[in-house]
Amino acid sequence: MKKWGRNMGLVAIIFLFIMGCLSLGYSSDTEEKVAIVCFSEGKAWLTEPGERERSEINLFDWIKIGTVIQTELEAKVVIAFSTGDRYELRGKTKATVGQEGFISSSGTLNKLESVPVMPQIAAISQEASPGSRLGGIRLRGPKGSISKFYPSKGTTLLAEEAVLTFEPIYGVKKYKVEIKDEWGNKIFSIETGSTKIATYPSVLKSGANYSWKVWILEKREPSILSEAVFSTVSEENTRARNAFKAQAYQSKDGIKLLLLAQLDMALGLWKEACETLNDALALFPDNEEIKSAMFQIGCK
Q1: d(Cα 97, Cα 57) in Å, to the nearest integer?
Q2: What angle do helix axes 254-267 and 235-251 make, rounded to 10 degrees?
Q3: Where are the chain's structural domains?
Q4: How many other CB atoms are found less than 10 A from the CB of residue 213?
Q5: What is the CATH topology of the domain spanning 139-232?
Q6: Which pLDDT score is estimated for 276?
Q7: DSSP secondary structure letter of residue 42
Q8: What is the pLDDT confidence band of residue 137, given thresholds at 50, 70 and 90?
């Protein structure tokens, strides 16, 4: 009896282990985000797996497997999957998200031209954790405060197109700007009256970390006004981003511009994202979702 009891206990443990594995496997599948909303206009809703309540769809929402998307009359939503496939939902449409596309649908669902760079956009968006707002940092110094100190923590630059900016201080005519690498070596220094500083090529390297400082040069001894840290986009991501940018602008496809903006946000290129969103808004001037995205990341 004791032996039988031990065997039953072992069977129970094995059963619980298998059920736990199955449960974990199911959870990981349903939690996986496989698509993004890259255009939204009109009334549209999503219901996530296991949820009864639906919520409004927003531009740049990431969508889980099993999510049900519904669009109302005169609405238009474009979904891009991590595989690169894109679909347009129009009018009264309902569709369920699968691993690589929609697994069921009713209404008007059109497949659009694919976006080969989407796997990289998805990977970068899942892994990157840049700052949440453009120009959101305020650093205080001896002469008060400075806003829009850019770049700062959580922000990145493209190494070959690096421009540093900050808000001018009233009455100050001359500043000193200095950049150091992550080992503390000074790699750039300039005295200027401008608050927009473009570095020359080869000063910054791709995929590296830096710090920069600004001094006021109108006292016997220079006074530090502000300082911040930033990083540069890796060479691989820069190439992918620049190639997709060229493609998006050449195609004059406003929805591709929105995907480019999402890629820039994921990379921490907040100024570039704002510029691209502004260009997309010129194509869709009445789109409230684009306006909302611009407001949320601090675009002017």
Answers
A1: 14
A2: 160
A3: 30-114, 139-232, 235-296
A4: 16
A5: Immunoglobulin-like (2.60.40)
A6: 96
A7: S
A8: very low
